[in-house]
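Exercise (ungraded).
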Amino acid sequence: MEFLGPIIFEIFVPILEFIAEPVSGFKPIPGQYFPYYFTIEYFQRPLIASIVVAIVAGLLGTFLLIRNLALIGDGLAHVSFGGIAVGLVLGGISPLWYALIFSILSAIAIDQMQTRKLITGDASIAIFLTGMLGLGLVVLRIWGGGVTATVEGYLWGSLQMIDTGSFDIIVTSCVIAYVVIIALYRILLAIAIDPIAARVQGLPVRYVGLLFSIITATVVVSMVQIVGVLLVTALLVTPAATAQLIGKSFRSCVILSQIIGVIMVILGLYFSAEYDTGSGSMIAFIAALGFMFVALAKYAIGFVVKPKENLE
Amino acid sequence: MSSDFFPVCGEEILNVRDLSVNRSGSQILRDISLSITCGEFVGIVGPNGGGKSTLVLTILGILKPKTGLVTIYDKTPLTKDIIGKVGWVPQTASELPTNVQITVREFIQLGTISSRSIFGISRKEREAVDKIITVVGLEDCANKRITKLSGGQRQRAAIGKALASEADLILMDEPMVGVDRESRNSIMRLLDDLCHEQNKTIVMISHDLASIKQTVHRMIYLEETIRYDGPTSEFPELSSLAKLRGIVATHDSQEQNAWSEDEQESGIIIMVPGKEGEK
């Protein structure tokens, strides 16, 4: 059974092919291998999935940052590794489904532990992160033949593993997550700014928090194949943080974060194709470089433009 | 149903009966009874740990009372009928998150969200927000980020957010923390105008007795229970506060220092009742 995968694929493919060759004979995409991402179906799918994931991650990341939850993505990614390990051993359906279930349940548990003040701060994330990573490794060692190439693909991200089935899971969960976050846009912002005022205004703070956790878990799982368990945070936090450096309003931060995410992913895929490195590691590296570049540029501009303020 | 709730001056808006509240096992408030009518501007003062914030959070419905009852327009707080009738202004200067690049306009617009309209903002609401921005005097920095504002401007923005919800009853927790004296006075004037002209009811917690004393109509001194509740003009001077507390000789020196520091900071000496006019 397929959901939104084929539809999204049909929408994107003509665009990619147009970009690859807008006028007959003119091929603006640079590089020796990178153009394949635009023309060959086997590579088109990973490119589309990466772009979709970058857009959703940029949007979600902005809300994670204002809720001070930058590391929840990392935590849930490790949790989903536990799910993937169990899925690889049990087989049957795609390991991503197991990852999704593990990740959502843990997200709910973490949210409940934090709202019920069972333990404070990030401790609940730390417990789930290490516990589930441990579970995954133990399960693989006993029943799964250790850390194989497939397992490594999930750890560091591997675009070759994105087949029609996982493409469908990734794209569908991203579209659902995007729609839900946009629908909750103002209410999420209101809660992040002042939870008490939000409750006084009659907003369902608890339920929205829970729903947000589930959405975060879903997005994280959809990112695992592209950037890998260990690098999810790169795409979730870095573009949003970069946007915060230059955004002049919350809305502009939200939009910029998505644009920056897409640029970083495309640059990352270009360099990883041309220099034959892993996609996830290159995307993470490029995203961090982008952040540093923007931060330095901002500092430099501030130094040149407003020297008078500094004199005081 | 909601049409019954238009504020009428003199109508009772808030009623608290025999309220006792415990927080993590220890009793913070006991036997609180008070009634506040529309258009009143009430200041709640008292020492740290005296239960000011607890009282306000209980009125909001965030904390549940151990015994007693809070009603707003004869309804329980946080229930459907009175949602949107109550506004909340936190210690904004210190409590606003610094990691959100949100503009003043975006911030005040958040006040218009209700459980009925969470998805978008209508044109009518947009216009209402523009009007509120003018009322709180922030039209010059409507598109500036909150983090770039001064303490006083942020406080105005927070008041604007509460006004955007069209609340009749506005509760404020130490709103003058981090606000300089000049802005303090003009914010107090703004609040006074809101009470008189728009018939808002304002209940304000303050640590800084001197700065609110000139403006609020009614003063409540709270320390576990209400020790004084009456017109501001008859509020006793500082030296007799100790008598109100019933512990003349033993009150701790740290507490006393906290009060006198406030006085020094505001530069206003608390006057003997009845002499306000001479200032």
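Further reading is listed at the end of the chapter. For now, observe: Residues 181-197 of chain B form the longest helix (17 residues). The two ends of chain B are 47 Å apart (CA to CA).
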